[in-house]
Amino acid sequence: MTTVFDPVDLSGTQLSNRIALAPMTRSRAGEGGTATDLTVDYYTQRASAGLLITEGIQPSAAGQGYPSTPGLYSAEQVASWRRVTDSVHAAGGRIFAQIMHAGRIGHPVLLPDGLVPVAPSPVAAPGQVYTQVGPKDFVEPRELTDAEIRATVDDFVTASRNAVDAGFDGVELHGANGYLIHQFLAPNTNLRTDAWGGSVQGRIRFAAEVVKAVAAEIGAGRTALRISPGNPYNGVDEPEPDAVYTALVAELEPLGLAYLHILEEVDIRELTLALRKRFTGTLVINVFSDGPTGPEHHTVIDDGIADIITYGALFLANPDLPARLKAGGPFNTPDPSTFFGGGAKGYTDYPALDA
Question: Catalytic annotation on 179?
Answer without folding.
Answer: yes
